[in-house]
Amino acid sequence: MARVNIQQLIKRYGNFTALKQLDLEIPDGSFTAILGPSGCGKTTLLRCVAGLLMPDEGHIFIGDLDVTRLEPFRRNLGMVFQRPSMFPHMTVFNNIAWGLKLRGWAKADIPARVREMLRLVRLSEMENRTYQQLSGGQAQRVVIARALAPKPDLLLLDEPLSALDAKLREELLTEIAEIHRQTRCTTLLVTHDQSEALTVADNLVLMNEGEIVQQGAPLDIYRNPQTVFSANFIGTNNLLPCTVVDNGTQTQLRLDGSDLCLNVITPRFALTLGQPVWACIRADDIDVLDPATAAVHKNVVNVEMVRTTLTGGSVSVEAKLANIPIRINVGGSQRFNLLDNTHTLTCALSHVTVVAREAQAVRQ
Ligand SMILES: Nc1ncnc2c1ncn2[C@@H]1O[C@H](COP(=O)(O)OP(=O)(O)OP(=O)(O)O)[C@@H](O)[C@H]1O
Ligand SMILES: [Mg+2]
To answer: Ligand 1, atom 1: nearest CA belongs to which residue?
Structure first.
């Protein structure tokens, strides 16, 4: 186990700067997910930590050791890549034993450790098989066992599930989380799948264009995105253009082009009167109300339904709030009442957060 501390890291490919003075602290024993769109620099960052790429500037510490210029094999870490990288000609057993031999483990200690790892990844029955005799998920579990066998301080996983189908992905993700629970090895998982990150991580790092955009507890980022990028990437469905106003007793947001004012969760930056902002409202955080009981709720609004789509467990409602499009997800048995209906809905916008509005394209 070890903490990782990254200071002012810069990595350039020719004229292109892939990591822009990046600072990052990864707590000891954490399960950290690095989440960001394709090309934002996730693999570059991981390869710098692994020692497979040399940064142009900055420092990387694993524990108290400055590893920036250290060879990869001296960093005591395990790495798993996107595609299963089992040695195809070796058995499962020998694949896992290989890393131990390389690190000079005593021959007599190796079989017990290999079998312990096989139990951990639930492949005890398969130690004599080769790559051709395993499924993609099993091969990836061998690689995880091989990475963990020498008791690394740090486990680096670069999209380890992306070559697998959806069901296997879910299974192996649960297993990786369980392995972390048992070993407490500091784990860094790179992914561009927000639900994967939210499922397993206790620390979430959002990256965009070579920079860290937001870092913290996954639930906190999910509930309180702080930029338009974070809001969009973590799946906020509604960004409504508003202006900061004061109703005499409190600061509120007035929906542009209407008189409608919304209460917001106290933002972590100072709002100034007249400032243009986005109100962020997740489609799942909008509750459809019985108009008779609406009075006890905050932020009660009427929306005009435009279209409904059954998406399985919920109904997705496209509607208009004061002529601005808004999306609402309705779950539970209530959802069936909404199908084939075009009328006014009374709703409570139960969790409204705010991010600054800049001259920036918004992905909706
Ligand atoms: N060897 C290289 N030479 C030049 N540019 C590179 C090289 N490797 C990566 N890049 C560029 O650096 C940027 C970051 O690449 P990186 O592979 O770190 O992204 P990523 O976040 O891992 O993306 P993905 O989710 O697609 O794997 C990209 O714009 C990429 O095109
Ligand atoms: Mg990558």
So the answer is: 13
Closest CA to 328 of 287, 273, 356: 287
* 252 and 212 both lie in a single domain: no
- As given in the structure block, the two tokens for residue 95 are 């694949």
**140 and 263 share one domain:** no
**Residues less than 5 Å from ion ligand 2, measured at CB:** 43
pLDDT at 334: 76
Of 173, 195, 223, the residue that ends a domain is: 223
Query: What is 201-214 written as a DSSP string?
Result: -SEEEEEETTEEEE
Asked if residue 280 and residue 237 are part of one domain, the reply reads: yes
DSSP structure string for 208-242 = ETTEEEEEE-HHHHHH---SHHHHHHTT--EEEEE
Q: Which atom of ligand 1 is nearest to the CA of 207?
A: 21
Instruction: Work out how many domains the chain is built from and give that number.
Output: 2
> Which stretches in the chain have pLDDT values below 50?
359-364
Instruction: Write the residue with the smallest CA distance to atom 25 of ligand 1.
Output: 38
> Containing domain of residue 171, as a range?
4-223
- Using most ligand atoms within 8 A of CB, pick from 13, 45, 54 the residue to mutate for ligand 1: 13
- pTM exceeds 0.85, yes or no: yes
What is the rounded distance in angstroms from the CA atom of residue 258 to the CA atom of residue 274?
15
